[in-house]
């Protein structure tokens, strides 16, 4: 177990930022997989200024991840930030939910 898995284990909640290529990233998939394995609550944010949920879902090839993330679209929090501000604004927006 390296730091990524350790950080997920120590987290109370895991934020998932659904953007284009999220599921094509090895580290993002590791993050999501570990959160699911540990049954961590997840807050899923979707950058609506980017690709549609259908496009992002099509990139997800892991059935357990697909079920956990996309089975309840109402649980996905839509956010809209310019790409350069996404990381700066997403957390404060999430805290307001």
Describe this structure in words.
There is one protein chain. The chain is 47% helix and 15% strand. By secondary structure, it is an alpha/beta fold. The chain is globular, with a radius of gyration of 13 Å.
What composes the largest sheet?
3 strands, parallel
Structural shape: globular
The number of distinct helices, counting runs of at least 4 residues, comes to 5
- How many angstroms does the end-to-end distance come to? 32 Å
Attribute tags:
97 residues, 3 strands
How is this fold's topology laid out?
Elements lengths: L2 H8 L3 E5 L7 H12 L4 E6 L5 H7 L3 H8 L5 E4 L6 H11 L1
Parallel strand pairs: 1-2, 2-3
Give a brief description.
The protein is of the alpha/beta class and about 100 residues long. It has helices spanning about 5-10, 25-35, 55-60, 65-70, 85-95; strands at about 15-20, 40-45, 75-80.
